[in-house]
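Holo prediction — pyridoxal-5'-phosphate.
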Amino acid sequence: SFPPEAVPQAPEDPLFGLMRAYKADPSPNKVDLGIGAYRDNNAKPWVLPVVKKADEILRNDPDLNHEYLPIAGLASFTSKASELLLGAESPALAEKRVASVQTISGTGAVHLGALFLAKFYKVHGANRTVYLSNPTWANHNQIFSNVGIPIATYPYFDKQTKGLDIEGMKRALADAPDHSIILLHACAHNPTGVDPTPEQWREIADVMAAKKHFPFFDTAYQGFASGDLDRDAGAIRYFIEKGFELVIAQSFAKNFGLYGERAGCFHFVSSPSPQAAEITTRVASQLAILQRSEISNPPIYGARIASTVLNDEALFEEWKGNLRTMSGRIISMRDALYSKLQELGTPGNWDHIKNQIGMFSFTGLSESQVLKLRDEFHIYMTKNGRISMAGLNTGNVEYFAKAVDKVVR
Ligand code: PLP
């Protein structure tokens, strides 16, 4: 049996710990700004109306069964997922340079990509390093370490401007060894809410091309960030257009509200070359082996829901409307929070609340201010000062602004 010292007690996951503390708090004023899940204006989870419709269609299908999916997942889902990212007219798709595998949501896609790179993207038998933005989604660190890929970081968030440290980022990418893996958030960067502008993406791509770096895109918020699916895929499409070979981890948790259904996809895109289609076929064959050993085949229900919507023109249009509802409400909460802080004359510059994009805002509140908000005001957010904007609504935004005002004075 295990000697107890062989298995040290691990700390609780900070985010899920926060969720537990929020649930246990009896205060009627409590506010949950922790986990990145959309809430409606009543602070309730929102089942997208289009998802309800797809659910209805599936339930009324007499031929529906619970058989295994193929190893690579539901083809009607993965093919539309790749079109959604790359654009239906993408030459990469026409030239069969894309291998797509359904995964356990975005986390599973990042993991499958990391596992694939750990096995096949080496230099002299050793794993290459992955460069993560500082800060990044905390799980990136554990996922890459678990498969033995060394981790380094590149500067990303500028504490002074509360915007992008583009010069620091470019410098670090230029200093990294050639052929490094660079993890990029495609849009709505978690946790900062700060994205490069199209011009900055071009500069990043130039440095990465000069260094022959390997882009690993993580996209968990397509359509959720700006409300526009094409715009939120702009960076990925630009890199593919520039001829990069790259991989993409795609989540449908946020944009379909399918969090617990674990619908996601991993894509490998080869550079244009006479061997591209063959390389892609080989990669797909290896991904299938990895997938088989890890999960055998992916879960069916979330993929069915997304596939039903993505393959029906009317439902697809309706989904876009649902996306605009979510992104629109979040943007209106940014405006409301900003206005309240202005009204209160809260010390400091709060422009970043409006300028940041997506699910999160990196407020700039310090750890001690965050803890004060929790202890004195029952407001729950991560220690780094990140708030999930979806936790705000017309009923609590003033309460939150007043609490912030008190703790920063
Ligand atoms: N990547 C980023 C940057 C995220 O923010 C998230 C979710 O918070 C994910 C990936 C994966 O989420 P999921 O596994 O729920 O799709």
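READOUT: Residues 36, 105-107, 137, 185, 190, 218, 220, 251, 253, 259, 264 surround pyridoxal-5'-phosphate (CB under 6 Å).
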